[in-house]
């Protein structure tokens, strides 16, 4: 079984985001980049699936600029066998899904794992677009994965509203998007990091995959959310504070 893990390189959550002067995107020069945390769950689950099935390979794939290869090196250091980089600086999720789908077809992928969403744009659609393009079944917010011993079927538990879980049975090939808590991603060991530096990363351009290098969608007019107003701290006796709070809620917030 050839398990592909679709990953994305995103800004670290502690990075202070600055908008470019022309509002075409964010300044990237001083950004610390990481693998999107949900994708780390997907990498770990792929490695566990390979160990359970005792056969196959795990390939990490990403679509992004040159720097995105570092995300692939992280996946290789964790234990992935191979990596594929589609060198394409685009934020269009439809284009990204097309690229991933073409890679999986070209490389004879059997299953695609991914995180349920990337933590930068939070759109959570690439897995679904990819599944649609491949005509494969898919599901998201998965918190448990169990393959059949022959790898031809898989049963997953999917989180739904109200802390309930649904069990879904699918045949492979399929696309599965992971949520937090499905596992504890392993740390890359020093030997793994050293070995990852020697592993070859296969590189494709959009044209190699039969795609136009002009994305279908483009982002523009970026802006930061408005700053929150400072909070108000009431003082005095409790009855006076309550009266003042009710007055402000009625006259200023207009919620009562």
Protein model, in words:
The protein is an alpha/beta fold and 256 residues long. The protein folds into two domains: 2-209, HUPs (Rossmann fold, 3-Layer(aba) Sandwich); 229-256, no CATH class. Helices cover 29% and strands 25% of the residues. The protein is built from six helices and eleven strands. The strands form two sheets. It has a nine-stranded mixed β-sheet with strand order 9-8-7-10-6-1-4-5-11, with helices on both faces. Strand 4, helix 2 and strand 5 (82-87) form a beta-alpha-beta unit. The N and C termini lie far apart (60 Å). The model has no long low-confidence stretch (mean pLDDT 90).
How is the topology of this model organized?
Elements: E1 2-6, E2 9-11, E3 33-35, H1 37-53, E4 57-64, H2 69-78, E5 82-87, H3 93-106, E6 111-115, H4 126-134, E7 138-147, E8 153-159, E9 165-171, E10 174-178, H5 190-198, E11 201-204, H6 238-253
Parallel strand pairs: 1-4, 1-6, 4-5, 5-11, 6-10, 7-10
Antiparallel strand pairs: 2-3, 7-8, 8-9
